[in-house]
């Protein structure tokens, strides 16, 4: 253990009167107000990074608390959706969703030499506390030599934001290894839960995936007449009066995950990380079906009973689940929690759907991941839950984990709002491999939503990594042609597919694929294949706004079992 210390607090923003009132304080370094929030954010964070040793500036993790900004921008977008609905029209491109908070970090990456991990917390009432606890704990445990914590809040009595950032460093300047945790600890997957259009449970999903089925249906959750596509992968979960569908989906997935993890109830020191919802939106609280994307004013962790300081909301678009796993891993390794529950949900709603529609990302037919004739995303509905704990704790309670989370990398970087940057995607894969101490994997479960640019960029990223390590035909496939793209919860079916592949020694195919794209170092699978000796699976997870992630799961291969579809 080392002793962390906080540096000088840098303050800036877009609210001049708020900043002028701080200039007399000697414990703050106050910058001039910026003309835009993104410019002010870059100025403040660059100043905080400049306080660090040169060797640390480029890769130090940045954790941002941005509840106010998320509430404001999401409320504005929902308002535009409601207006379009009332007018019986689709959104115009000029009304597209205001950038998510993570895009402020993307601006930092574009404007400076920084390219480290970035995380956005939007937890009601607790985001800043969670960011500080994370940085203090991770530096104290030796996971990082330094971290930067920043906060973006509405300025009181003024139209603008105030931004504060502070570097947290190891007081003794101790060097930190890049892999593992203190004392060689590792984090394992102890349980998974899943609900998809195939039904409840990982077994139903795995069976449908191996059979190559596609659970396509007509969208009935809301009036979709003004949208380009009305083909989705909708669950059979029925809506109950006064209760959002997302709660029913999460309850089912959580029950399976806890049962698989051998937990009758959650321990007292449990971290909950939620993807797929945003804080309460009082400005648009009466918008139709708003409870499918926004939590209640008195949110209780979706009924989990976890106290607010340990209930986290994350905002990283469709990569939110993987970013949540990265956070949970570090909280476990530095002793801030005993067990972590990472959850994600995609409940079909007009707001997410309108965003994809205006970006022309949805397919008017059906998604065909990695196919030459792919034309866009088929939106899916479902939920996933992953239980993480340290290997030592699992062993102490006599539980055999499903897999080890041997490597994970998350970066917010790249140019453009909706385009995947192949070089950044490759960097995440490269970092995840290095953390796990590997140069190759036995199988890749791709993100591959079926978009023209995204699928091609992902294969290019895989080929870049493959060329460096002489990969020869590493198999890759995607589930999204089967149950659709679960958006913020998209990582969970990928993790379940990876865990099942390790367990059953079978590689799943890519439902909907007819004409695979060419690749030099990987081989796109159309149909399932039995395969002896699978010990490592790379799972990719990407999102709009420069959100990129890759994680690596490992497990012992027990020899090939007979391939069946009974789970």
Biggest beta-sheet profile? 12 strands, mixed
- Strand portion: 15-25%
**Portion in helices:** 25-40%
Number of helices: 15
Rg measurement, Å: 22 Å
What structural class is derived from the secondary structure elements? alpha/beta
Average of pLDDT: 93
The number of strands is 23
Compute the separation of the termini in Å: 43 Å
Instruction: Tell me the overall shape.
Output: globular
Low-pLDDT runs of 5+ residues are: 557-567
Polypeptide structure, described:
Strands 8, 9, 12, 13, 14, 15, 16, 17, 18, 20, 22 and 23 form a twelve-stranded mixed beta sheet that branches. Strands 1, 2, 3, 4, 5, 6 and 7 form a seven-stranded mixed beta sheet that branches. This protein has a two-stranded antiparallel sheet with strand order 10-11. 31% of the residues lie in helices and 21% in strands. The chain has helices at residues 16-20, 37-50, 54-57, 67-86, 102-111, 127-140, 202-211, 245-261, 320-333, 350-358, 391-396, 422-436, 452-469, 480-483, 491-504; strands at 4-6, 9-13, 28-30, 62-65, 118-121, 146-154, 161-170, 187-196, 199-200, 217-218, 231-232, 270-275, 311-313, 339-346, 382-390, 403-412, 443-445, 474-477, 506-507, 522-524, 529-530, 536-543, 547-554. Residues 557-567 have low confidence and may be disordered. The chain is built from 15 helices and 23 strands. By secondary structure, it is α/β, with parallel strands linked by helices.
């Amino acid at each position: 253990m080392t002793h962390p210390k906080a540096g000088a607090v840098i303050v800036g923003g877009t609210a001049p009167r708020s900043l002028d009132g701080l200039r007399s304080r000697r414990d703050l370094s106050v910058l001039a107000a910026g003309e835009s929030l993104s410019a002010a954010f870059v100025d403040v964070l660059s100043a905080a990074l400049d306080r660090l040793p040169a060797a640390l500036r480029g890769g130090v993790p940045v954790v941002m608390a941005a509840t106010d900004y998320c509430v404001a921008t999401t409320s504005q977008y929902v308002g535009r959706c409601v207006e379009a609905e009332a007018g019986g029209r689709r959104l115009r491109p000029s009304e597209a969703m205001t950038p998510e908070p993570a895009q402020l970090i993307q601006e930092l990456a574009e404007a400076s030499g920084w390219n480290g991990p970035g995380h956005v917390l939007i937890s009601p009432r607790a985001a800043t506390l969670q960011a500080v606890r994370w940085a203090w704990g991770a530096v104290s445990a030796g996971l990082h030599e330094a971290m930067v914590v920043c906060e973006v809040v509405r300025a009181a009595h003024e139209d603008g934001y105030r931004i504060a950032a502070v570097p947290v460093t190891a007081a003794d300047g101790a060097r930190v290894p890049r892999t593992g945790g203190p004392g060689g600890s590792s984090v394992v997957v102890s349980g998974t839960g899943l609900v998809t259009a195939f039904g409840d449970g990982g077994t139903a999903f795995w069976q449908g995936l191996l059979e190559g089925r596609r659970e396509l249906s007509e969208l009935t959750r809301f009036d979709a007449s003004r949208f380009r596509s009305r083909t989705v992968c909708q669950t059979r979960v029925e809506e109950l009066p006064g209760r959002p569908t997302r709660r029913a989906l999460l309850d089912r997935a959580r029950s399976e995950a806890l049962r698989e993890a051998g937990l009758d109830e959650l321990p007292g020191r449990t971290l909950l990380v939620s993807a797929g919802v945003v804080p309460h939106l009082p400005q648009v609280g009466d918008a139709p079906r708003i409870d499918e994307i926004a939590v209640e004013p008195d949110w209780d962790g979706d009924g989990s009973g976890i106290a607010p300081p340990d209930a986290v909301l994350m905002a990283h678009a469709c990569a939110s689940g993987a970013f949540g796993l990265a956070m949970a891993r570090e909280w476990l390794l530095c002793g801030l929690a005993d067990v972590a529950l990472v959850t994600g949900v995609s409940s079909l709603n007009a707001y997410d759907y309108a965003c994809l529609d205006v970006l022309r990302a949805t397919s008017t037919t059906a998604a065909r991941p990695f196919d030459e004739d792919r034309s866009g995303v088929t939106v899916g509905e479902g939920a996933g839950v992953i239980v993480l704990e340290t290997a030592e704790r699992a062993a102490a309670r006599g539980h055999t984990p499903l897999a080890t989370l041997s490597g994970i990398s998350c970066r917010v970087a790249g140019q453009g709002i909706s385009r995947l940057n192949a070089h950044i995607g490759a960097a995440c894969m490269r970092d995840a491999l290095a953390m796990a101490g590997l140069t190759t994997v036995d199988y890749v479960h791709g993100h591959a939503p079926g978009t023209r640019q995204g699928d091609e960029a992902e294969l290019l990223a895989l080929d870049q990594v493959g060329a460096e390590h002489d990969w020869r035909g590493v198999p890759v496939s995607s589930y999204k042609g089967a149950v659709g793209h679960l958006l913020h919860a998209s990582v969970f079916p990928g993790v379940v597919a990876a865990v099942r592949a390790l367990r059953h020694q079978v590689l799943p195919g890519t439902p909907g694929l007819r004409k695979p794209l060419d690749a030099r170092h990987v081989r796109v699978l159309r149909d399932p294949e039995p395969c002896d000796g699978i010990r490592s699976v790379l799972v990719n997870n990407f999102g709009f706004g420069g959100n990129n992630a890759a994680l690596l799961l490992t497990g012992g291969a027990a020899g090939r079992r007979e391939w069946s579809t009974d789970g």
